[in-house]
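hi! just following up on the protien thing from before. the input was this:
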Amino acid sequence: MKFINTSGKRKSSVARAVLAPGTGVVRINGFLLDTWNPGMNQLKVREPLILAGDAATKANIRINVHGGGVSSQAEACRLALARALVEHDKK
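and the predicted 3d structure came back as:
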């Protein structure tokens, strides 16, 4: 499996996701998803992982996000993550 690069935008937030072979670790700006912005915004980011099921456990995902507010950053991350998982599923 090769590296997959995707991006997502929401308002003025931009997120870039890199999907690589691995064990299912998700990091946002260097923080594990479990510790990044707990609450509803974290659940927004988890949505694509829940829908992808087993495919998400076979890859490590690194997301860098900047700009905008906390909620729009979460939605930009969700879009970038979903696009990466769709690309991964095609292969």
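The longest helix spans residues 70-90.
The chain has a mean pLDDT of 92.
cheers
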